[in-house]
Amino acid sequence: MVRGLEHLCCEDRLRELGLFSLEKGRLRADLIAAFQYLKGAYKKDGERLFTGACSDRMRGKGFKLKEGKFRLDIRKTLLMMRMVRYWPRLPREVVDAPFLEAFKLIIAMEELKQCRLQQRNISATVDKLTLCLPVLEMYSKLREQMKSKRHYPALKTLEHLEHTYLPQVSHYRFCKIMVDNIPKLREEIKEVSMSDLKDFLESIRQGHLCCCAWWQLEDLGTPVLISQVWGKAIEVHALTAI
User: Fold this and answer.
1) Which residues form the Exocyst complex component EXOC6/Sec15 N-terminal domain (predicted)?
2) Looking at the DSSP assignment, which residues form a beta bridge with residue 131?
3) Which of 28, 53, 43, 29 is nearest to 67 (CA)?
């Protein structure tokens, strides 16, 4: 057991050590065994395991495998079933390798190509996510400002989102959904801000009525029931002049 890897599962240990996964290792061993059965030391046994079938319709090469009627060894039977599915997908240069060492080398080259392709795909995905994250952060900021009723900052954030951030990722589906929602968001901000403005003006009017009622009470000097202040009945006792 390698120190520091005790807590990892088998697949993660292989990945940390830079080794093939169990699935890739088994596939590589199956390919080498199939090559030996077809062209190598076990060619006579391979004639019972596999039969070739030529086809001009296949892309890349005109050769695929068919299952033989070999049923004595279960391991060879499983190998036969796996290789019949996988062998037609191999490149022509792999199938036509002249000897085993060349076959192993070509397999290693193909695996290296796949690793490089995966690295390019990962790098491209990271770059795309780097472009998308600021857009999502601005949209989250906009929603937070709308929730806290900060209407003017929300309009400024919406403007930046519409004219600066969304054009950079306009080809993504979520971006198109955001662009379609912008008029709705702007109208929602407008309606909420108008409602808040009306409530504010109404509170000013109620405050003015309260002040007027208090001034009248000072002039009268008697208890009066006021129903105009904040929509509630408040009994106010005026102090009598000494």
Assistant:
1) 104-206
2) none
3) 53
Backbone angles phi, psi at 66, to 5 degrees: -125, 150
List the beta bridge partners of residue 53: 64
The mean pLDDT of the chain is 68
Residue 42's pLDDT is 54
Burial class of residue 90, CB neighbours in 10 A (0-12, 13-18, 19+): buried
CA pair distance 185, 172, nearest whole angstrom: 20
What distance in Å separates the CA atoms of residue 154 and residue 147, rounded to the nearest whole number?
10
Contact 227, 233 (CB under 8 A): yes
**Collapsing DSSP states into helix, strand and coil, what is residue 80?**
helix
Please tell me the distance from the alpha carbon of residue 31 to that of residue 107, in angstroms, as a whole number. 9
d(CA 226, CA 213): 7
Span between the terminal Cα atoms of the chain, in Å: 98
pLDDT digits (tens, 9 = 90+) for 177-218: 888 888 888 888 888 878 877 777 777 777 766 677 666 655
According to DSSP, residue 186 is labeled: H
